[in-house]
Amino acid sequence: MKTSHIILALLALLALGGGAYALTQFGNTTDVAVDPMDTDTMPVEPDGGIGDGAEPLDELLGEQTPADNLAYASETIIGQSVDGATITAYHFGNGTEEILLIGGTHGSDAPNTTALANELRTYFAASETTVPANTRVTIIPTVNPDGLADGSRFNTNNVDLNRNFACDWSATSMWREQEVSGGTAAFSEPEAVAIRDYVAEVNVIGTIVWFAAEGKVYPSACEGVPSRASAELAATFATAAGYPADAEFDAYRINGDMVNWMAGQGIPAISVLLTNRTGTELQKNQAGVAAALEYLSAN
Questions:
Q1: Residues 290 and 252 sit within 8 Å (Cβ to Cβ)
Q2: Fewest Cβ atoms nearer than 10 Å: which of 45, 51, 96, 114?
Q3: Which pLDDT tens digit goes with each residue over 15-66?
């Protein structure tokens, strides 16, 4: 399916999402306009995942190559977890416009997102030509190192980190049919603070965050429908990767979502949900990332 067709499909979904939407002309400088809607119906991480993480964690994650062995990588420690584990960002390229690729928000519940992020590090290390001119790609493989180490979806404070960001934050939210903690306040958890503070320091022009598991791509939105840029980014990634794209998910309530918070900061951001909790689908995601980088660097 052509990118333009997926974008039109996304807009059609927005227009049919319950009759509350009023779409303006989708021109070069016009976003989708909408009456205020309940952001409880705008989560980006659906239920019904496939796979139970049966593959041993060490086999799934594989060998993680240190940044100093990669051809032109640098790295920055951007924060620490509750237990003091470092949260590291790996950088490729020297441009002033930054594109973030993030995995490992849900620890051992989706270890393949960390594994994919580490595979993408090797992919970018292979050749500087994979990074467009004037941009820098930053990969954060693991937002939740404690959960990854401890066999948990949550951090050491038992907080779902993808409920701890300042977009429609609530002390409690949902994961499937289970009530989960969003923390004591937005950004109460050091892992979420690490992402927030890093984003504040650099010029982020787009973000891709991986979760599991559905095999679908979602744009971001905070207190509204996705911007034109987020919808186009989702369509671009989905077309290249061969994933379906959808405009919104309402199977259960999600508050304090990371990519939705980024949307509130004016950053085009998408959630990519891997098909299961074990495979990285590397070739699909390489294609999606390459297309997304081309789109972001040109817009």
A1: no
A2: 96
A3: 333 333 222 222 233 333 333 233 332 333 433 333 333 344 445 544 444 4
CA dist 220 and 234 (Å) reads: 9
Report the pLDDT value the prediction gives residue 30, as an integer from 0 to 100.
30
Average pLDDT over residues 236-265: 92
- Residue 209 pLDDT > 80: yes
Strand 86-92 and strand 97-102: pairing? Answer: unpaired
CA nearest neighbour of 262 among 127, 129, 100: 100
Residue 23 lies in a domain: no
The Cα–Cα gap between 140 and 228 comes to 26
Domain around 96: 3-11+33-298
Alpha carbon distance 94, 72 (integer Å): 10
- Give the per-residue pLDDT at 149: 97
Euclidean distance between CA atoms 286 and 123, whole angstroms: 8
Residue 24 lies in a domain: no
Closest by alpha carbon to 191, among 155, 167, 221?
155
Number of domains in the chain: 1
**Is 27 within the bounds of a domain?**
no
Give pLDDT, residue 59.
Answer: 53
Instruction: Check residue 120 and give its pLDDT.
Output: 96
CATH number at residue 274: 3.40.630.10
